Amino acid sequence: MGNWQAIGYNDGVAGYSSERLASHTKACAKANVSPDYQAWERGRQQGLKQYCTPSNAYALGRRGQQLNSVCPSAMLPELRSSYTQGYNYYKLQAQLQEDQQQLQSYLTEYDKLREGEQLDFKTEKEARARLLSLQPKIRSLRRDINNTEAQLDSLNQQLKY
Question: Which of 23, 26, 98, 145 is most buried, by the most CB atoms less than 10 A from its CB?
Answer without folding.
Answer: 145
